[in-house]
Specification:
Radius of gyration: 19 Å
Shape: globular
Distance between the termini: 9 Å
Number of helices: 9
Structural class: mainly alpha
Helix content: over 70%
Strand order of the largest sheet: 1-2
Strand content: under 5%
Length: about 230
Amino acid sequence: MINRQVSEFMLIEPDKFRKVLILIFSGLFLILAIQVRFNLLFMHVLDDGAELAVRHLLPQTVQSWVSLAGICNHYWLAALFTVGLACLLYWVNYKIAMGWLLVTQLLALFVAAVVTVLLQLQWHNGVHLGPMVPDLLSSWWLQILAVLFVIFLPRLMTQLKWRLVVQGCIILFWCLLALARMQQNHLSLSSELGALLFGYFWWQLSEQQYRKHAKHWREVLKIDTSI
């Protein structure tokens, strides 16, 4: 049921083309990583233009929503939501999914840190490490929202029209959060693009691995049978 609902929204069959999505988004992230690593002019132009637009050219209405989304611009809040979501998964007897969520969030921290060191470690009168690429907090929120998007929302809303409205609001919230990160934490567009590309790649990869390895444990433990 969930696969069919997700495929209706994405216009693609996730289990059938998941590997294609993983390759596409990992390839896009690799292209972005090369741009960042070698300080190519194209990325500098995009970062500078985005910084100017976000800081000085946003309409007041958009700025108000960005400020509101900035309330969630805290690592401790994302960690709290992750724990709360894990508890909710445990409560509805999705215990394997609960553990998988926690593990993938922690692994995302490690992978993002390694990638940042590889991309941003520079020598300017000493060792200097630039901001995270991908932005870890935005990647964490993307995974949190994806779990709500895929697992819980289809169960809470049966009408497709209202479900699409809420899904659109979830996507808009992440975009506003990314803008808030750029404003309040002086992050570059490349960092948020990295969070989007890496976060979606990481989500699809974790989904693939979950469905591949959790089947055995679902049968043994008689849990997570609905996912």
